[in-house]
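user: can you give me the structure for this one chain? tokens are fine.
assistant: on it. calling the predictor now.
[tool input]
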Amino acid sequence: MSKLSLILLSALLGCLVSGGAAGTIRVDTTGIRVVDDIHVFAAQYPGLQIQQMEKEIVPGKARAGSQTVRYNMGARIPSDELVAQTANTYEFPRAQDVSLQLTYPENGKGAIVSYVELLCTQDTQEGTAYVVAGGIGQSLISIVLEARNTKNFSYQALYYGIN
């Protein structure tokens, strides 16, 4: 998928999420880091606290032959707002395990994170999402997202917070 297509898709998703007004939501995928194995990743950072996100299978949302999995952490609060979102789509020639690291904010200072939601479309329900740095109530959150045995994988990450 070209960068322009990704930007247009993200803008469209932003409009849908925000009820039609895209506002000034930043769409960026430069903070994605591929993590081959969460256990090797954790071993590289002694003392790392890994917190698993809640997982829910979303029935009837994905195209035929695919599953939609929702991961979330935290809770929406009255004064929070959508502060950032990212999205990407991957296609592979054969089924494989997919792992990536998503970080908010990409650089600089971010809003205090109140809620994070990841919507993933993949060939199976198998996968997990872990917070590996920062978290709810902090101005940074870094998540390792994993999907197992999939040829098609797409995600949308929504970050809500208080500026």
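assistant: here you go. The chain is about 15% helix and 50% strand. Strands lie at 26-27, 33-34, 51-52, 54-58, 67-74, 81-104, 112-122, 127-134, 141-162.
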